[in-house]
Amino acid sequence: MNILERFHAMEYGPAPESREEADLWLGSRDFSKSLYIAGEWRAASDGKTFETRDPATGKVLTKVSEASKADVDAAVAAAQKALPKWSASSGFDRAKVLYAIGRGMQRHQRLLAVLESVDNGKPIRESRDVDVPLAIRHFLYHAGWAQTLDKEFPDQKAVGVVGQIIPWNFPLLMLAWKIAPALAAGCTVVLKPAEFTPLTAILFAEICERAGVPKGVINIVPGGPETGEAIVNQPGIDKIAFTGSSEVGKIIRRETAGSGKKLSLELGGKSAFIVFEDADLDSAVEGLVDGIWFNQGQVCCAGSRLLVQESVADALIAKVKQRMSRLRVGAPLDKNTDIGPLVDKTQLERVKGLVSEGAAQGADCWQPDFTLPSSGYFVLPTLATGVSPSNILAQEEVFGPVLATMTFRNQDEAIEIANNTRYGLAASIWSENINVALHVAPQLKAGVVWINGTNMFDAACGFGGYRESGFGREGGREGMLEYLAPKAAPGAEIKPASKAGFQRQGDYDILSIDRTAKLFIGGKQVRPDGNYSFPVLDKKGKLAGESGQGNRKDIRDAVAAARACKAWGEATAYNRAQVLYYFAENLSGRAAEFAARLAQLTGAAPQAARAEVDLSIERLFYHAGMSDKFEGRVHQPPSRAVTLALNEPVGVLGVVPGDDAPLLGLISMVAPALAMGNTVVAVPSARSPLVATGLYEVIEYSDIPAGAINIVTGYPSELTAVLAKHDDVDGLWVVAEADTCTYAEVESVGNLKRVWTSNGRAIDWTSDAHNDTFLRRAVEIKNVWVPYGD
Ligand code: NAD
């Protein structure tokens, strides 16, 4: 074809990027030693290797050492050895190392990009223009956090040795998201790249060697699920940071329960791409190219569900089909390629299988009419229309270039369909009306929302999910917190409470309070479902009263009431502040009565009891004041956009404050939860429940909407288990003995609720240090990207 013919056909000629440098690196390197442990290149202790292939041809690129459990142990030992010196090094010293890594990557930018495309199959345009520059940006950005750590996080220290497990879809970028904040915080790391894509991690380790990273600070252990499991279960690891499927995320949640390991999970998604009738349809179509065909759709936040307003559906679908017909599927190293091969044969079969199943379930699956390369793991992009909400293509994460389309009539319906998924990673909103877009964004259950755009990322803007898309954030200030732990020593061990105290043991004749306290659900005092009560003894062992013994049904009712209480979440922060001040005022009016009750039930000296009440009032005041001050931020990423990092309530929170300081503990957990707009189901101290039940009247006349606070007395470990298993509870905070804490974590996997436990330790409720920590736990950060300019 000559130039004139080409011009008329509007057809691109081939424009291959050279892979010479990558081949040279592959050919010259000794891959029989590809574990990087304690600053040395080692073979696997059992000699095992695995193949990594070029997805464009299916040919083996090389064989890489596969880390065994013994190798993981060695890597953890190296990381432990390096930790004291690295975490004690000055912020400036760590900043210099991070900067040197970033500069080293810049020097190898082209090699990294080509190697990534060869190993993963992603088009070179993406690895060259997105993956590698963003990965470099992460190291340069986090150099700044390293230097400012002591000033910005004065009560925090490095969490310790971190085990990091990443997927194959953005091998280098996910590595950067994990390693950069960890090093900035002063942690040392053991990272496992995915089995399909180990190469850029190996090259990265070489760059680190040259950048002067001290031995043992970064350890790279390639391998598959077994290596991952060895990391998860290694007792010397203090935190696990995992990115991958929700299925494996749940396994890891269960396996780390009770270990005290800090955990962040970045999991799958089924993100909505919502097009309103006033959207610029051509821009939306280009957005879709980035949303679902970027990286062959193997993107956790891919806009895989297109929700389009009925009135423009036909017009948009026609444009999408036309655009799909022009997508270029082919060699990843060709600079004109839009869609490369999938990463592996197994992934290809999975995607094809899901498309067939979606079609069998009634979806109309359309594919453009072009021929695929004869070798490699290529698949045609698919547009599925007529997709019912229950169709597998609407519910399952396909992780391929498959777009499921649904229509909606109005805003409410769009929001409802968008939220009709167990995931909550990201969403895009397309509308020329910024009022509409900013009205819809907060109503979407997603950690990231892009307005008139998609797949925008930056190191300064946190990324992470709601619901089963996991918890924790990567990037930004919030990402740093994932690698930090409080400097304060943990409290004393909590001894398991004996259930005997709950059983009637003969007759008690001295009753100082002649009534049985009920439960408080939906703004009403109600009898427990089972009609049982338990005796409450004072410090001298005399009967002080009876308290209702809540059960599973009572917790269910309380959760339903908390969920139904829309008024609290919708109230302005200023309204919430006023109500909490009012609560404090009313409690102060009855301070003497509460102090007497505390003294009677806990045996505290009158002065100490009064001090607990006064501090509870002070804490309510603090959180009332924070209601409209613990706010989000605005980021200015290096693109024409602002990112609004909004603090949103987690939702329905279960709180179990334990027996110490029964009034102060309860208030210290309930107040920040309420201040941030959550609704609460509290299980108060079992030893002194009458302190909590005494609050019912205070709550009733403090203008707190019915259902915002629900209190279920009973046996905390049983009720905690019910809360943990309940899939309509979004978060759970537990101060209890170790077994109850472990159980709360294990049983939370159903909906991956956000669980915080004291890990069997007591909390010093008199300290103000916990105030902001609980406020942070009470919110999910949603990053809303708002681009500007023409
Ligand atoms: P995967 O869960 O199968 O594997 C991820 C990693 O975990 C791999 O390194 C794998 O070897 C390891 N692994 C597998 N089983 C393990 C176990 N039992 N214990 C410990 N480690 C184990 O996921 P994948 O197929 O490699 O990646 C695709 C998934 O990753 C998708 O669901 C995608 O949405 C998700 N993802 C999420 C994000 C995010 O930021 N939320 C980013 C990229 C990818």
From TrEMBL:
The active site is at E266. GO terms for molecular function: oxidoreductase activity, acting on the aldehyde or oxo group of donors, NAD or NADP as acceptor. The keyword Oxidoreductase applies. It comes from the Bacteria. InterPro entries: Ald_DH/histidinol_DH, Ald_DH_C, Ald_DH_CS_GLU, Ald_DH_N, Aldehyde_DH, Aldehyde_DH_dom. It holds the Pfam family Aldedh. Keywords: Oxidation, Oxidoreductase. Residues 41-487, 541-755 form the Aldehyde dehydrogenase domain. Belongs to the aldehyde dehydrogenase family. This is Aldehyde dehydrogenase family protein. It comes from Mesorhizobium denitrificans.
